[in-house]
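Dear colleagues,

As part of the handover before I leave the project, I'm documenting each prediction I ran so the next person doesn't have to rerun anything. This entry is a single chain, and its sequence is reproduced below.
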Amino acid sequence: MKIARTYRLLSLLLLFSGIAVPAAMADRNSDYWKPENMARRQCTSVHLVYGPAIQHHSAAYTEMVVRKSAPGTYFACNNFSNGYIGVQELGHKDAKGQPVRVAIFSIWDAKDTGDNPHAAPEEERAKLVARGEKVRTERFGGEGTGGKSMRIFDWKEGEVIRTLVIEKEDGEDFRQIAGYIYNPKTSAWELLSCWRVQAVRRGLGGGCGFVEDFMRNIDSRTHERSATFGPAYRWDGAAWNAANEFTFTRDSNPNNNIRCALDPDRGYYTLSTGGDIIPEEDFPPFAVRKIDRLPQSTPPGEDVQALINAPKLEQQSYPDDGSLE
């Protein structure tokens, strides 16, 4: 993940989670981001880039299975050029003593005009079109600007998590970008949120999955986090294109207890970071792999295609932000 996006992503997660954001985080040259301080405080962030690149795809379908989680973890199914979608375990528990787990989807404004959401020109802001039931939405700043959404979503380790992002034209100069998550309890795709964004460019662009520790409180680096990513498909307007090249990357944290290993059950790669992980002997730290011989799975079904083919969403009005309660 590019460093600018890393700062934006982390700050956004902390704001949404109710965790205090250190002032030093806003300064990319502060001691907070020195490698030795990162190593002491947090797990290394690991990413799996989906390839080959299809820059102008208008929909992205991704599956992920969380293997191990810990408080303050973000498992992103798909981080694309305009935003990201995935699930998260927050840093606190609910009234029953269970970890609070959520689904998240966020979109950046079309242009980077700084960190003040109120200073961004009105016509350049991502505007909420619609949101799903019990979804909380609001604008954000401090790490770039845009729109964010979150809802309680009781995902489990070992379950397949399915996400879908769709772009649709909304006039000559705008487009809609909507994020959905499949709910196994209702056997249906459920909308997280949809945003109207300036069409500075068309297409979702790029795509990667990642595992990040956003608790970053020294103890958090002692807990393993891992997830298996794939299959990942992109819709180019005529056909589904399966990702069959995967590139493993990491951030600048010098902690080397990370791993990217093929999962024999899923046939895709598992990213792991933190805890007592010891890299395999044939997989040294900082390694980058490109794989182009993974098995092909069945493309997304008619339920996904129906959402892609449906008309763009109609503008809704909301008196107040939603609630995570």
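Residues 3-17 form the longest helix (15 residues). The two ends are 32 Å apart (CA to CA).

All the best with the project,
I.
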